[in-house]
TrEMBL record, chain A:
<dbReference type="GO" id="GO:0006260">
    <property type="term" value="P:DNA replication"/>
</dbReference>
<keyword id="KW-0460">Magnesium</keyword>
<dbReference type="GO" id="GO:0005524">
    <property type="term" value="F:ATP binding"/>
</dbReference>
<keyword id="KW-0227">DNA damage</keyword>
<dbReference type="GO" id="GO:0006281">
    <property type="term" value="P:DNA repair"/>
</dbReference>
<dbReference type="InterPro" id="IPR012340">
    <property type="entry name" value="NA-bd_OB-fold"/>
</dbReference>
<feature type="domain" description="ATP-dependent DNA ligase family profile">
    <location>
        <begin position="313"/>
        <end position="432"/>
    </location>
</feature>
<keyword id="KW-0234">DNA repair</keyword>
<keyword id="KW-0067">ATP-binding</keyword>
TrEMBL record, chain B:
<dbReference type="GO" id="GO:0004521">
    <property type="term" value="F:RNA endonuclease activity"/>
</dbReference>
<keyword id="KW-0436">Ligase</keyword>
<dbReference type="Pfam" id="PF00753">
    <property type="entry name" value="Lactamase_B"/>
</dbReference>
<protein>
    <submittedName>
        <fullName>DNA ligase-associated DEXH box helicase</fullName>
    </submittedName>
</protein>
<dbReference type="InterPro" id="IPR001763">
    <property type="entry name" value="Rhodanese-like_dom"/>
</dbReference>
<dbReference type="InterPro" id="IPR026360">
    <property type="entry name" value="Xnuc_lig_assoc"/>
</dbReference>
<feature type="domain" description="Rhodanese">
    <location>
        <begin position="153"/>
        <end position="210"/>
    </location>
</feature>
<dbReference type="InterPro" id="IPR001279">
    <property type="entry name" value="Metallo-B-lactamas"/>
</dbReference>
<dbReference type="InterPro" id="IPR036866">
    <property type="entry name" value="RibonucZ/Hydroxyglut_hydro"/>
</dbReference>
Length: 539, 349
């Protein structure tokens, strides 16, 4: 009976505004549901478990096969939401008397069923459920649950239900996986506490504050250590006899996307570092290359060859079982250097320190850094312990000034989600010789942000009035509007038609005063490309 | 044999039987009216002669006052027949609220049934709907005339409410419901589910509960909520008009759970727009399946739709070879659940 029970829980969570009421509902779920369904339900609510096996289109096709098209369209118009419409109009089938599926049956069915048999499987489940159950099932199988029950709230509910302190649960949380059987056994007093030492555990990362002018003025160079702030994703590597994990900054397990790193983690330690695409010779590739590796469930050999991942190490948190976090930064750094020299881990290197004698010198180093792989500088106090979160005065980040070009708007596209009614994605280009004695525009990037609400509306009107062609959600516009586009770095890239990739481009302002012919040329941008080695490699 | 459209006409005042010179559920004062049931959009004040079931007449007197519930009241029990200028008139229960009835009319062998509002799900507070077979025209409502509306069993919704009361024993559950019909049905269903504790009522709901009890419907221990101390209402069930459940009146109670009992609660957006924490899908109108099944059971070759979602229903009948006609009667669907529709539509817009 667990899908109906899950549907009831879901409905109450969605309509209940109160936090205490939500906790009470979760407590009842833990108390009443059998294993493994209570754990699967918990994981689905907190989005630790998200199914994307079935596409919404599959559900629409199933409904179209069962319901008169006119009635379906009228219903869809009235309800407004496709998933809910299908859940409500799904007609009962004479003779269908299968019991409703359990959560574990659904999870297993989605995993094991070949794609061709999926429609029949889902239709069978829909036949066995009532409207509420169908809605929950549709949301579950299409990965669109979004109840807004945070993992933290769920763990508080677990604590209240079991009478254990929430900190104890937090500590073991990353050592257990859905359906959390050892966790529930422990919380019900039927088993040992799951051992966080045995399995890799995420420790919250230490973060830096942006450096302000007043902070800079009082900075004593001898008390501080400087490093580059590398432009990748911050990770924690955690390896030991109990397993290996790569955690993202938010504690998400991203190990599956980087198997070559996991393979190289043949040690017993916890490290802090930056995940980057690093090509032969130690050159760091643009962030866009790293993006090719993110959010993938499986990674093939070609992807690993084209976008080889590596980790640039910042800090050593644990060496073996020894917790180094309370030690001063200088001590940890020395331990890290010695550790690397001894262990020589593959695919990893040390983030070098930058010597400086004065703030003025440091400022000049920052201003001179043009490599796209560098976001700016990190300043760490020599005696800082490694503490979770953003503690002021211990670590600073000092980002580089952005660069900018005047580019011409070429295409506009509707945004997604709440911006879907606006043209909010802008492709812009720069001039280059067309090989026939004239000039042509070549697209160099896409900006999604930077504009004000008023500018967004103004751009929308301008785009509608200057459209020359439409391709689905994309409009091509007259090449007549100049945008000043800021970006953090530019780097050569063979994947882009223009041969250059921009990091985090955003619209600084609309240059209505400037004719399109006076926008910047591609050459100007190329001059800003800082990484000479990468340029040589790309050539 | 004359077609009903030659003797039963749509006029600005409502459906008019020409040879009998009377209206069914007229929207403005007329000389002679036949009233299907006591909801205010069907039973309006200041008619001359009013023909209805004894229960509907009692409800009209309670709501409108003796002076305005028709100058001359003529009770007609289901099964009895009166003849007015050659038009035979009889009533059959509609299962909507206490006293609700379908108006059956026959003139020169031509027969039409005006069903008013109705439902087919059993209701402990009123007589069940009876099918009048063999009519030439069946006149139906279509409040929930879309296939998205399939009401769950009332017992399930009551169980949902009681489970919530058990889960939140410190909180007060305030259930929004219409004063006539829904309120008494909720009470009766709660009693059947074993809830014997006092049920507390907003002042606007008390008088009709007394009328029901006077007409023989037992509702158990009912108490006025307005006079009660806040502490006495912890863990209690309070019934109130839908308009106040999410308002200040309810917020003075202990951590209230805003509930609303209505067929519209089937659609999440509607429930959200009303600020409801616990939607209860409980309706006194036929759902999509009941509308279609009823139409088929009457065997009528032609069906007129008075109000509601006529487009979907007329389309579905057409596919079964039944002639459908939308009357677009103005002024119906304004009380009971029709009211929720307009409120929610504004909220959702
Ligand atoms: Zn009514």
């Amino acid at each position: 009976m667990s899908i109906p029970a899950f549907a009831a829980l879901l409905e109450r969570l969605v309509f209940t505004p109160g936090r205490n009421a939500k906790i009470a509902l979760l407590k009842r779920w833990f108390a009443e549901q059998p294993d493994p369904d209570r754990g699967i339900g918990l994981a689905a609510l907190t989005e630790e478990l998200v199914f994307t096996t079935a596409k919404p289109a599959l559900l629409r096709e199933l409904a179209a096969a069962r319901v008169d098209p006119v009635l379906l369209a009228l219903s869809r118009d009235y309800v407004g939401d496709s998933a809910e419409t299908i859940a409500l109009v799904w007609p009962p089938r004479a003779g269908a008397n299968a019991p409703p599926p359990t959560l574990s049956e659904v999870a297993e069915g989605l995993e094991r069923t070949p794609k061709a048999e999926l429609p029949a499987l889902i239709a069978g489940w829909l036949d066995a459920l009532d409207a509420g159950g169908r809605f929950a099932l549709i949301k579950l199988v299409t990965g669109g649950l979004r109840v807004g029950a945070s993992g933290r709230l769920a763990r508080i509910a677990l604590a209240e239900w079991s009478g254990r302190p929430v900190e104890e649960i937090e500590e073991v949380w990353h050592g257990v996986a859905p359906p959390y059987l050892p966790l529930f056994r422990w919380l019900e007093g039927k088993g040992e506490r799951p051992d966080p030492r045995g399995t890799p555990v995420f420790r919250p990362l230490m973060l830096a504050h942006p450096l302000g002018d007043s902070d800079l003025a009082v900075l004593q160079p001898e008390d501080w250590r400087a490093e580059w702030k590398w432009d990748g994703i911050r990770v924690q590597l955690c390896a030991g006899p109990g397993g290996r994990r790569i955690w993202s900054r938010g504690g998400e397990d991203v190990s599956a996307a980087f198997p070559e790193i996991v393979e190289a983690m043949d040690f017993h330690a916890v490290l802090d570092g930056e995940l980057l695409v690093i090509r032969d010779g130690g050159e760091v590739a643009p962030f866009a290359d790293l993006q090719q590796r993110l959010n993938r469930k499986t990674v093939g050999p070609k992807l690993m060859r084209d976008y080889p991942a590596g980790v640039r190490l910042y800090d050593l948190l644990f060496e073996g079982e020894e917790d180094l976090r309370a030690l001063p930064f200088d001590t940890r750094r020395a331990r890290l250097e010695a550790w690397i020299a001894r262990v020589r881990p593959a695919r990893m290197d040390l983030s070098p320190q930058i010597a400086f004698a004065s703030v003025a010198q440091l400022s000049a180093i920052r201003a001179g850094a043009r490599a796209a792989s560098i976001e700016g500088l990190m300043l760490k106090r020599a005696d800082s312990p490694y503490v979770a979160g953003r503690v002021k005065g211990l670590w600073w980040k000092w980002k580089r000034e952005p660069l900018s070009v005047d580019a011409v708007l070429m295409y506009a596209q509707r945004g997604s989600g709440k911006r879907s009614s606006y043209y909010s994605d802008y492709t812009f280009g720069l001039w280059r010789p067309d090989g026939r004695g004239g000039e042509e525009l070549v697209p160099v990037g896409k900006a999604y942000s930077g504009y004000t609400d008023q500018e967004l509306l103004w751009l929308g009107r301008w785009i509608r009035n200057h459209t020359v062609a439409r391709f689905g959600p994309v409009r091509e516009v007259e090449k007549a509007l100049v945008l000043e586009v800021a970006f953090d770095a530019a780097q050569r890239s063979m994947r882009h038609k223009s041969g250059v990739a921009l990091r985090f481009p955003r619209i600084l302002r609309i240059r209505r005063d400037k004719p399109a012919s006076e926008a910047d040329r591609l050459d100007t941008l190329m001059a800003l490309v800082g990484n000479r080695e990468a340029k040589a490699a790309a050539d | 044999m004359p077609h009903p459209e030659t003797w039963l006409r749509v006029t600005p005042a409502g459906l008019w039987c020409e040879p009998g010179d009377f209206f069914v559920d007229p929207t403005r004062p007329v000389a002679r009216a036949v009233i299907t049931h006591g909801h205010s959009d069907h039973a309006r004040p200041d008619h001359g002669a009013v023909l209805a079931t004894p229960e509907t007449l009692a409800i009209m007197r309670a709501r409108l006052g003796d002076g305005r519930a028709g100058r001359r009241q003529q009770p007609l029990r289901p099964g009895e027949v009166v003849v007015q200028n050659g038009v035979r008139i009889w009533l059959r229960p509609a299962g909507h609220v206490l006293g609700s009835a379908q108006v059956c009319l026959e003139w020169r062998g031509s027969r039409a049934v005006v069903s008013g509002d109705y439902k087919r799900t059993p209701d402990p507070t009123c007589a069940p709907f009876e099918v009048e077979r063999g009519c030439d025209v069946f006149v139906t409502e279509a409040t929930f005339g879309l296939p998205v509306f399939r009401h769950p069993r009332p017992e399930e919704e009551i169980a949902k409410l009681l489970a919530s009361v058990a889960l939140f024993p410190e909180r007060t559950h305030v259930v929004g419901c219409y004063a006539l019909g829904k309120c008494q049905r909720l009470i009766a269903l709660l009693r059947r589910a074993g809830w014997e504790a006092p049920i507390w009522l907003h002042g606007a709901l008390l008088p009709l509960c007394r009328t029901y009890e006077a007409l023989g419907v037992r509702l158990g221990d009912l108490r006025p909520a307005t006079a009660a101390r806040k502490e006495a209402l912890r863990g209690a069930i309070v019934l109130a008009p839908p308009s106040v459940v999410a308002e200040r009146w309810a917020r003075r109670l202990t951590d209230p759970v805003a509930c609303l009992a209505s067929g519209w609660m089937r659609v999440r957006q509607r429930a959200k727009a009303r600020g409801v924490e616990l939607p209860l899908v409980l309706s006194d109108h036929a759902d999509w399946d009941e509308l279609n099944a009823t139409i088929d059971e009457t065997g009528a070759p032609e069906v007129w739709v008075t109000h509601g979602r006529d487009d979907a229903l007329v389309h579905a009948m057409g596919r079964r070879g039944i002639r459908g006609r939308a009357l677009h009667l103005v002024g119906l669907g304004e009380e009971d659940e029709g009211e929720a529709e307009t409120g929610a539509a504004e909220g959702a817009a």
